[in-house]
Amino acid sequence: VASGQPAYLVSSLDSTKVDLLDKATRSAMERAETLARGSGSSVGALVSANQGVIQVVERGTTGSSDYGEYDTRTIEKTLRAVVSLEYAVR
Known about the structure:
34% strand; single chain; alpha+beta; 1 helix; 3-stranded mixed sheet; 3 strands
């Protein structure tokens, strides 16, 4: 009998992705408002939005990859979503 390493998966990944994208979008808007305020401007309408990679990485990992990662080796994980939003500036 042979056995391999166990694989630790995120069972709620689909529903978690929606929450991650919501939080990432709100964070991006807050950052855009901060940048605009600092230059005496304000944020206008959303011009474009793109979803980047979803990362499932070992907790404490700070790196990122262009193609996404899905760590199955560790139980405790960090999930990250990348969004790119472009706003008009007034």
